[in-house]
Specification:
The protein has about 240 residues and is of the alpha+beta class. The chain has one domain (about 25-200). Helices cover about 45% and strands about 15% of the residues. It contains eight helices and nine strands. The protein has helices at about 70-80, 80-95, 100-110, 115-125, 125-140, 170-180, 205-230, 235-245, and strands spanning about 25-30, 35-40, 45-50, 55, 60-65, 145-150, 160-165, 180-185, 190. The strands form three sheets. A five-stranded mixed beta sheet has the order 2-5-1-7-6, covered by helices on one side. It starts with about 25 loop residues before the first strand and ends with a helix. Bound molecules: zinc ion. Zinc ion binds next to loops.
């Protein structure tokens, strides 16, 4: 049987990640936290007291998520056990973008911890299962995020801007990490890349991971060859003779 031709490996230099976005991500905040305004995009009722002073019915304080919110320690602190799901999805995304079976297998181990190692291996080997599971899981986790038009009161000015409002901090961190954080395929460390096309935390890890992939693909090719190559001549001759009997 003819083996499938492997897709060309996309390298760190020429992949761009269109998901990175400058759109603000908003979450509710407590009185103790610094606020960036109120949720003025929800329907409100204005009331006037006896002195003619107007008040609005919804004054929920909100804040924009910052880079500090997607620090790895912060992610684990806020998401707890769910951080494993996030790491697994980051692995699957990059495993799809880079056509990297190693990272897809790792992703499946994280998002389906009950599976056997062999089953995770089988799921991650081709792009098919990652393509099926990945968009469904991400869409489900982010189903409560809303696109809103926010009247931001703080500098750089009172401006109307599109924003993504998350009902809780967990969802906000999940979304922001998903848009702006990478999981290094080699060491599994989370990091925020300084450019969209950076997929590894260091160039040393990029090279080490490439070497791992090369070794793995070489080993797989050797195994395929062993399975498809004819028997050694002496045994083949013997087999033919036996067959003639
Ligand atoms: Zn690394």
């Amino acid at each position: 049987m003819k083996s499938k031709r492997r897709q060309p490996v996309t390298t760190v230099e020429n992949v761009s990640n269109p998901s990175t976005s400058a759109i603000p991500i908003l979450v509710p905040c407590s009185d103790k936290e610094r606020s960036d305004g109120i949720a003025n995009f929800f329907k409100v009722v204005f009331q006037q007291d006896e002195h003619g002073k107007s008040t609005r019915s919804d004054t929920r304080r909100i804040r924009m998520l910052t880079q500090e919110d997607v620090d790895p320690q912060r992610i684990e602190q806020v998401l707890g056990d769910e951080s494993t799901l996030l790491y697994g999805l980051l692995d699957l995304r990059q495993g799809l973008q880079q056509d990297d079976p190693l990272q897809r297998v790792r992703g499946f181990k994280k998002i389906r911890p009950g599976d056997t190692a062999e089953w995770s291996q089988a799921l991650g080997e081709s792009q098919f299962w990652a393509r099926q599971e990945f968009p469904v899981l991400v869409t489900e986790r982010l189903k409560d995020v809303r696109l809103v038009l926010w009247f931001a009161p703080e500098p750089p000015g009172r401006i109307l801007t599109l924003a993504l409002f998350c009902p809780d901090l967990q969802t906000g961190i999940f979304l922001k990490s998903f848009l702006e954080v990478r999981c290094c395929p080699y060491c599994e460390r989370l990091f925020s890349p300084r450019a969209n096309n950076i997929m590894y935390c260091t160039t040393a890890h990029r090279d080490a991971h490439r070497m791992n992939r090369y070794r793995r693909s070489k080993k797989a090719a050797e195994q395929r060859q062993k399975r498809t190559s004819p028997l050694p001549r002496t045994k083949q001759t013997k087999a033919v003779k036996l067959g003639k009997r």
